[in-house]
Design a protein that fits this description.
Blueprint: H1 2-9, H2 46-67, H3 72-95, H4 120-152, H5 159-167, H6 170-193, H7 198-214, H8 218-225, H9 229-273, H10 279-317
Helix pairs in contact: 2-9, 2-10, 3-4, 3-10, 4-5, 4-6, 4-8, 4-10, 6-7, 8-9, 9-10
Length: 334
């Protein structure tokens, strides 16, 4: 189950670098005034300094989300996108004659598969569904980045303003989503047709993961600096070289936090569902657990978006926003 969830959410954070330039529409609201300063990060006190910054980013993101709870609307909307991705993925599997939740009775599959895995129809459906899900994810991320950047600048920011600003970059975001969907479909194709070749599957996942990390700042560059896709990609590579350790440590910290909570939530699921011979009860407990995991993923994606703006600001100015260090600043409504 975790492997399937990982496959579904992988494209939410992975970007590919071969994007062409796409012109964007004029902006209807001012770009959030994130300070652009050529000063490079000083690197702190070596590894210790980077670890401290990563911990500050992780804990500061949680604090900021607690102070601005309305940012959780982005979590909720991301959850809808994730739900769509889950349903479509399970649907393709069911049509291919594979039970997504074998043994639970929650999903029934036809006796005769209606889709052949790896066929042109299978590839087309996989790509289209991934394109819709990825575009929804990057669009919401663009809106979240806009709101967080405004908060860091001491301005007010509403959900509507964030999404409205993201709408002005719908063309670039759609182009980026298409590239991500192609890469995600290719990776899923490899994993589906060569499940026994673990090395090949692992290499394909690593390639996507590395590109995802290297292009983490593409969306901030698009919506905060009004850059083209190619320019945003090159800018992302530059900041990644400066902040790669902070990105890794911060992501690990947030996902370890999520894993601990998910593991604790699994204990009552195992205690209630698995000892029972009732498949219906097992299905209910597993379904409840999956909902809890989805909620957790929704919250963590928002935390990562907040941390991403902090890393972007640090890469541009050499300083973290004060709100990450516990200084409330201007607590503006969202």
């Amino acid at each position: 189950m975790f492997a399937k969830l990982d496959g579904i959410i992988r494209h939410h954070f992975g970007w590919c670098p071969n994007a062409g330039t796409i012109r964007t529409a004029p902006r209807s609201i001012p770009t959030p005034p994130v300070a652009i300063n050529p000063t490079q990060p000083d690197g702190g006190a070596g590894g210790s300094g980077r670890l401290d910054r990563s911990f500050t980013l992780a804990t500061g993101s949680i604090r900021i989300l607690f102070l601005h709870k309305r940012l959780l609307w982005f979590s909720f909307l991301t959850g809808l996108v994730l739900l769509f991705s889950l349903i479509t993925t399970f649907g393709i599997q069911a049509l291919s004659g594979i039970s997504p939740l074998a043994g639970t009775g929650l999903v029934t599959v036809p006796d005769t598969p209606l889709l052949v895995e790896g066929s042109p129809t299978w590839l087309a459906l996989t790509f289209v569904f991934q394109l819709v899900a990825v575009f929804g994810s990057v669009f919401l991320l663009a809106g979240l980045i806009t709101c967080v950047a405004r908060l860091f600048s001491g301005q007010t920011a509403t959900l509507g303003e964030g999404l409205s600003h993201a709408k002005n970059y719908a063309g670039s975001l759609a182009g980026w989503a298409a590239i991500m969907a192609v890469a995600g479909t290719e990776q899923q194709f490899i994993a589906t047709l060569h499940p026994e070749d673990l090395l090949l599957v692992f290499i394909s996942m690593m390639v996507m993961g590395i590109f995802g990390l290297m292009t983490s700042f593409v969306i901030p560059f698009l919506v905060l600096e009004d850059r083209s896709l190619i320019s945003a990609f090159t800018g992302s590579i530059t900041i990644f070289r400066q902040t790669w350790a902070e990105i890794l440590f911060c992501m690990v910290s947030l996902w370890v936090f999520a894993f601990v909570i998910a593991f604790l939530a699994l204990i009552p699921t195992i205690a209630v569902g698995f000892p029972s011979d009732n498949t219906g009860l097992l299905g209910i407990t597993m379904g409840t657990y999956m909902v809890a995991v989805m909620v957790l993923i929704m919250i963590v994606t928002t935390l990562m978006g907040i941390a991403l703006v902090g890393l972007y600001t640090y890469g541009k100015t050499g300083r973290l926003p004060e709100m990450f260090e516990g200084k409330r600043g201007v607590v503006a409504p969202v």
